[in-house]
Write a structure and sequence with these properties.
29 helices, 604 residues
Length: 604
């Protein structure tokens, strides 16, 4: 059974990689056609959207095969006892079965031919039921492979099947409003430990049973249409570019530069970790990738120099918030798509707040290093050596300049900038630095394809979820409640931040952005708060949630890679959370930090 699961994992992740390559190729063909021949290649953008839709479908089995989605479980301490397995399996099975029937109905009912591709429109959705069907038995197959007891999984399957068969006849369901059913379904699904994307789909389907608001075919269509908007195609592109830049020795050049600049200070390696995260932010945009890299490369070095394991892990986790604030941030890109804001304006607005976060973290490291007597690093290298390292790292750091500059001056769109970033990363890795052999690119694309598919599914699942909230006037109700308390913009900002802090503790940043932005952004705009400033505040706030229990995904990533218990890391990271909160308040109360760069560069 283990061999079968491995084959499935390789096959489906390989399919995701192939679809990703096709997506990139389609967009590249469109760019070359327009710039070289001044003729727009009809269908290039549409083909990329269809390929991304197919990638999203592959996330359904990949979620179960690799555990790639974030999940929150209230069952302690192992989070995998019989009760958790039964409830999580029931929620997941119900969601998958409803998705299969909804997609099947949509495929048979939808008509027409896409004019740019000359293909039937139903083909855009065809992989959804196929991949959902493949995902159905995977939990049971994993139990068989691990020789675990089968009764909890089988009980969960029966419960999920009965729930699906009951449908709107479920006792008491029609007495709930769709909004109440949505909220209750989401909380229950999260509590079982189901993946966040599955929890959102489950909640939407429960809301439909309560009020008939979003039938399964509409859920499927809204999910795909919401995730495959042209701007959001940039997300898998920047994830891929970051993965290519992370491979081989490219990141090593950033670490060497950071070491030459701050490695000689008290707590030098901790300072190097923070500065490396700042430099890394300009080429990645993914805090999760930064947490993984620093946990593998820098945390072990800190341990060798005598840092306590929890301290080394806490520094690593805290510094990894920076790539989702400093451009090209994937979080700000997603927020731009949800809030209909300029990606360039948001990215430029994130520069000074990101550097402020860096400064607060480095000050905290300095204080703790003196109190806890962290060791000094090696002596500062001579100026010629520092200059040499700057020269080695400059081509890597130029990626951020190309991306932000290209968007700011209208040379490329955000999606086109993602294609340029991939080509530049491949050029550096294969031709300039020879950081990895061409054969390794396949493995990089496999990983990037899987990550992109799962992020796409998360974005897609949030679309019908947000639709139900808007249809049930949740933003208006929250807005009325907020303005009923105060109409002071500053107090409204504080209230919004308290709400963000709470949700940031229990939700992945992507899910929180997708759920909360449609609710909170109209309140901010009505109160006269600049939406770009508020967007930066949202992301900084939610990234702090990545360090707090019960979710604390940055802590859990660091914990798993450094073999340090998460509870020890949560204690050790508290001083850094305090520093980040102080920086958040500074950003909150001084909008110019976010808006001044935009005025200077003409994006404000």
């Amino acid at each position: 059974m283990t061999a079968v699961l491995n084959i499935l994992n390789r096959t489906i992740s390989g399919l995701a990689a192939l679809l990703l390559a096709g997506l990139i190729g389609s967009l590249l063909a469109g760019i070359l056609s327009r710039y070289l021949t001044d003729i727009s290649l009809v269908g290039a953008g549409t083909a990329a959207q269809w390929l991304f839709a197919a990638m999203i479908a592959t996330a359904l089995p990949l979620t179960r095969l690799a555990g790639g989605h974030l999940a929150v479980s209230l069952y302690q301490p192992e989070n995998n006892g019989p009760a958790a397995i039964i409830s999580s399996e029931a929620v997941t099975l119900f969601a998958l079965l409803t998705l299969i029937t909804g997609a099947g109905t949509l495929i048979t009912a939808i008509g027409g031919v896409d004019p740019s591709l000359n293909l039937p429109v139903w083909m855009r959705f065809v992989l959804i039921p196929v991949m959902a069907a493949i995902a159905l038995p995977l939990g049971l197959m994993q139990d068989l492979a691990a020789a675990r007891k089968l009764w909890p999984r089988l009980t969960g399957i029966v419960a999920g099947l009965l729930l699906w068969l009951a449908g709107s006849d479920l006792p008491g369901i029609t007495s709930l409003s769709p909004l109440m059913a949505l909220g209750a379904g989401f909380v229950i699904a999260l509590a079982t430990g189901a993946p966040v994307a599955i929890a959102m789909l489950f909640a939407v389907m429960v809301a439909h049973l309560a009020g008939g608001l979003m039938p399964p075919p509409a859920t499927t269509q809204t999910m795909i249409n919401g995730a495959t908007r042209h701007l959001l195609l940039a997300a898998p592109l920047f994830i891929t570019a970051g993965a290519l830049m992370n491979a081989g020795s490219l990141t090593d050049r950033l670490i060497a530069l950071a070491t030459s600049l701050v490695g000689h200070l008290r707590g030098g390696l901790a300072q190097v970790t923070v500065l490396t995260s700042t430099l890394f932010a300009g080429i990645s945009g993914s805090s999760y990738a930064e947490a993984a890299i620093s946990a593998k490369l820098l945390a072990p070095q800190m341990r060798k120099q005598g840092y306590p394991a929890a301290d080394a892990g806490a520094i690593t986790a805290a510094a990894s918030v920076l790539p989702n604030v400093i451009p090209p941030s994937v979080a700000l890109l997603i927020l731009a798509g949800v809030a209909n804001l300029s990606v360039g304006a948001l990215w430029i607005a994130g520069i000074l707040p990101g550097l402020l976060l860096t400064a607060f973290l480095m000050i905290t490291v300095n204080i703790l290093a003196r109190r806890r007597r962290y060791p000094r690093g090696a002596a500062r290298p001579p100026l010629p050596e520092i200059t040499r390292r700057i020269g080695q790292a400059t081509p890597v750091l130029m990626l951020a300049v190309l991306i932000v500059g290209g968007i700011r001056f209208g040379i490329v769109t955000p999606t086109e900038a993602g294609v340029v970033a991939i080509l530049y990363a491949l050029f550096l890795g294969l031709c300039i630095y020879r950081a990895y052999p061409p054969a390794e690119v396949r493995a990089i694309f496999r990983e990037a394809g899987s990550q992109s598919a799962q992020i796409g599914l998360l974005i897609g699942a949030a679309s019908p979820f947000a639709f139900v909230m808007v249809a049930e006037q949740a933003p208006q109700m929250l807005s009325n409640a907020a303005f009923g308390l105060t109409d002071n913009p500053l107090l409204l900002l504080i209230l919004a931040n308290l709400l963000l802090l709470v949700f940031g503790m229990i939700l992945d940043i992507g899910a929180a952005i997708l759920i909360l932005t449609p609710i909170l952004m109209p309140i901010a705009i009505t109160a006269g708060i600049d939406p770009v400033h508020f967007g930066v505040v949202i992301v900084v706030n939610l990234m702090i949630g990545g360090l707090t229990p019960p979710v604390g995904i940055l802590v859990f990533i660091t914990s798993s890679l450094t073999a340090t218990p998460a509870r020890e890391l949560f204690r050790a990271v508290l001083p850094y959370i305090g520093a980040l909160l102080a920086a958040l308040l500074t950003i909150l109360f001084i909008p110019a930090l976010s808006l001044t760069p935009g005025w200077i560069f003409g994006t404000g």
